[in-house]
Each structure stands twice: as structure tokens, then as C-alpha cells.
Structure to design on (452 residues):
């Protein structure tokens, strides 16, 4: 019989603007809590070891790999996933740019890419090329060759500037 | 194989004193868990040996960066992102900021901590060479008190360190440079972003009246621990930089004190050659 050390704990946090509670083992991956308990399956699992960025989310405003966050550390946190990126029912400028500029192909990396780009533009509204590359460097894509993703982020930043 | 989650306990102590008394009550049973960038990888691979963890992520006593005239003291939970954002560190400790910028991605830098990087004890870690160059000291606390340990003697062998059961790394203190040192950092990996080092080289020094007055050299991924190249430093100290024989002698000294191995990331031979080349590049920077 395996050793039963831990019990599930009640977990309360704010996800995409709504207060939620659920139960999870303290060291369950936040990625699994989001997908399996909260049914937010937009966040993807790629490598499961913090290398690929497919599970990127924002936690208290910081970009994190949700596969490396234990559930207990999400207690009381404010979380944004890809489901919370749209503004009032319309696409975020980054999402629109990915569509317009072909930044998505198979789609597995896309939620993480978009979270990384949204987080980058929050920190640097007018990023230079190096800042964009750095901001996306933790997100791997096996389809696009990256240039269309890079161009999507350039366009999103430019569109935001035009609107401002 | 994935981990069996019910086997892993994790608690959040309300403050540092509570964490330390928990660790003292069951010596060796409870391990500190910070940003999880190393431990969660082991968990997912089914290779996390310990079963009981204290979530120290929110302990205010382990956070913050404070500067005095002599030192900058960084809480053990200082993240790589916080290192890069700090004005004094950016100005006076560029090696630490470069190491932080070249460790993992934005997401890793938001969660990975200096204390965790030290306690994970990897010889391939990128911030320790910089910390050695800056004569870092580590503050270690337990329910019984606190002690300071020079970082250069903290790691005693592969994944071995001077940290007893019940002890926790509380802060890291680096000495503020007194003069205009020339500083050099280079990490060599398979790619620019997100790679673990094949070799990491951090060094600083100053030249007075044509002679090397002070020099510090530290390397990652060339020995069972991150290594201070003390014998190479000794050979360089007091020497004239334009001496043609100096570079070769220093390269040989460095080659004699590193013991790089063949592994999945590189070969011992490659690492040895690159170490020599990086030393040459550092001496060029020092002479410039």
C-alpha cells in the first residue's frame, strides 16, 4: 500500500476575475487543477518540466509555468489563463494579431505564447526586437518557425500604439 | 513515472520561526520548498526523494534586497527577475544580473530563487560563479540561531553542502566593489536561451600600474561543485598583463585545477578548451 501522507486541501483563488474554490492535493500541479478541477482546458501541457511554456499562465501578474507550481502555492493567488485574456467578449489585440499574421498552426503552444506576449506587452508596451525575443524565449513552437509569432507580437504592439 | 500525489505533504508555515521550529521538531524530515523550478521537475519525473515540504515562498523574512555601505544583502527568496530589476545590482553587480538573465526563461526567472539555486547544489548553476566572484557569504538560520558561511566553501562535493538538518538559507550577502573592477561573464550552452550551461565563467579584476592588483575567477560545470579558480588567481596576481608567457601559464594553471567530465551536454575536452579560451577573453577585457 502506498503511504498516504497528504489529504486534499480546500483551495481558494481568483481565476480570470472570478473567485473559485476546489479541492486538490497540496503538491498537485496547478496545471492539472486548472484543467481537471476547474475545466479550463485552454492551458496546455507540453513537456511538464518547465522547458516549453505551453502551460504558461499569469499568477499575481507574473508569467509562470503552471506545471511547476504546486496547488498549495496558488492559495489566495490571482490567476489569469488564456480563457481570461479576451476583453468583454472580443479578442485581445495579441489574439487578433496571431490570427491576422498566422501566428498559430497546430495550436498547442498558442495559449502559452499569447500569455507570454500579453505579459510582455504589460511590462513593455513598446518592446524592441530583443525584448520580444526574450519575452517569448521560454515558449517553444514546433510548427511556425517562430517568425510569424514574432511578427504577430510586433503587430499587436503597433496596433496598441495606433489605438492609444 | 509520475509521482503519487497523496504521498507528498506540504504545509505553509505562518512565519520563519514557525518553519524553523517545524524543522527542528523532526530533524531532516521537512525540506524547504521555494519556487519549485527544480523540485517540481523531479516530482513530475517521480524522482523527488523527500516527502514532506514546507512552503516558504511567502515568508517575508526571506525576501527583499537591502544595501549598506559595504554590502548588498539579498533574501534567499530573491528571484532572478528581482535581481535584474534592482538598480544597485544592475550598476555594481553586472555578473549576477547577467547570470540571472541567462537562467531559464521569463517564467523561470519569476519563480527561481537564489537560495534555491544554492540549495539545489548543481555544479551547472549559473548564479554561483558570480556570487563567488563577489565574495558572497550565506546566512544560515535554524531554531538554534544563525551563522554565516563563505559561499566559496559552502559546497563540499557533488550535491553536498554545509547545511545541517533543520537549517535554512536565509540570505546572501555580497561585498560592494571598492574600486572600478573590470567584470566578465560568459555562459556557453547549446543555444542562447533556456539552455543549461556547458560551461559558465565569471570573473572580475583590476589593474594598477600595469599589474593585476586583484582578480577573482569562478566557473560552473567544470568540477563537482562550482569552482573558484584560486590557483589561477594566485598565478595572475601581481603579474604584468602584457607578459606573453602569462596567458599560457594561466591557461595551464586553470586546466590543472578544473576537472570537467563528459556528460549529456558536452565533453570534458570541449569544456577544457573553452575554459582556456574564456580565460584569454577575460584577460583581454582586463587589459582593455
Amino acid at each position: 500500500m502506498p503511504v498516504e501522507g497528504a489529504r486534499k486541501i480546500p483551495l481558494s483563488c481568483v481565476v480570470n476575475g472570478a473567485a473559485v474554490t476546489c479541492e486538490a492535493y497540496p503538491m498537485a500541479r496547478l496545471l492539472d487543477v486548472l484543467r481537471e478541477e476547474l475545466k479550463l482546458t485552454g492551458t496546455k501541457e507540453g513537456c511538464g518540466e518547465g522547458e516549453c511554456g505551453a502551460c504558461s499562465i499569469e499568477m499575481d501578474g507574473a508569467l509562470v509555468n503552471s506545471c511547476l507550481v504546486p496547488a498549495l502555492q496558488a492559495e489566495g493567488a490571482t490567476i489569469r489563463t488564456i480563457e481570461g485574456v479576451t476583453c468583454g467578449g472580443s479578442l485581445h489585440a495579441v489574439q487578433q494579431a496571431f490570427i491576422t499574421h498566422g501566428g498559430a498552426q497546430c495550436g498547442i503552444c498558442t495559449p502559452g505564447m499569447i500569455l507570454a506576449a500579453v505579459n510582455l506587452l504589460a511590462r513593455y508596451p513598446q518592446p524592441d526586437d530583443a525584448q520580444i525575443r526574450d519575452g517569448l524565449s521560454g515558449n517553444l513552437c514546433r510548427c511556425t518557425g517562430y517568425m510569424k509569432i514574432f511578427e504577430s507580437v510586433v503587430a499587436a504592439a503597433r496596433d496598441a500604439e495606433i489605438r492609444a | 513515472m509520475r509521482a503519487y500525489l497523496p504521498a507528498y505533504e506540504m504545509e505553509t508555515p505562518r512565519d520563519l520561526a514557525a518553519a524553523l521550529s517545524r524543522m527542528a521538531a523532526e530533524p531532516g524530515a521537512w525540506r524547504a520548498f521555494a519556487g519549485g523550478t527544480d523540485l517540481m521537475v523531479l516530482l513530475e519525473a517521480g524522482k523527488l526523494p523527500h516527502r514532506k515540504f514546507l512552503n516558504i515562498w511567502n515568508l517575508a523574512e526571506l525576501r527583499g534586497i537591502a544595501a549598506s555601505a559595504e554590502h548588498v544583502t539579498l533574501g534567499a527568496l530573491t528571484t532572478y527577475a528581482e535581481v535584474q530589476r534592482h538598480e544597485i545590482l544592475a550598476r555594481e553587480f553586472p555578473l549576477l544580473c547577467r547570470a540571472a538573465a541567462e537562467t531559464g526563461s521569463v517564467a523561470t526567472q519569476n519563480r527561481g530563487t537564489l537560495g534555491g539555486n544554492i540549495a539545489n547544489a548543481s555544479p551547472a548553476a549559473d548564479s554561483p560563479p558570480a556570487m563567488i566572484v563577489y565574495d558572497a557569504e550565506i546566512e544560515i538560520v535554524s531554531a538554534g540561531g544563525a551563522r554565516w558561511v563563505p559561499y566559496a566553501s559552502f559546497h563540499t562535493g557533488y550535491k553536498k553542502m554545509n547545511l545541517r538538518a533543520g537549517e535554512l538559507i536565509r540570505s546572501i550577502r555580497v561585498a560592494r566593489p571598492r574600486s572600478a573592477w573590470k567584470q566578465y561573464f560568459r555562459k556557453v550552452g547549446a543555444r542562447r536561451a533556456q539552455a543549461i550551461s556547458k560551461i559558465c565563467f565569471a570573473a572580475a579584476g583590476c589593474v594598477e600600474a600595469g599589474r593585476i592588483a586583484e582578480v577573482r575567477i569562478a566557473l560552473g560545470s567544470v568540477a563537482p561543485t562550482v569552482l573558484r579558480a584560486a590557483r589561477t588567481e594566485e598565478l595572475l596576481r601581481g603579474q604584468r598583463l602584457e607578459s606573453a608567457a602569462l596567458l599560457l601559464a594561466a591557461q595551464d594553471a586553470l586546466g590543472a585545477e578544473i576537472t570537467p567530465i563528459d556528460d549529456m551536454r558536452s565533453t570534458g575536452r570541449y569544456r577544457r578548451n573553452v575554459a582556456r579560451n574564456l580565460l584569454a577573453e577575460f584577460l583581454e577585457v582586463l587589459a582593455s
User: Anything to note?
Assistant: The interface with chain B takes residues 2-7, 25-29, 48-51, 53, 56, 62-65, 67-70, 72-73, 75, 116, 119-120, 133-135, 137-139 of chain A (CB under 8 Å).
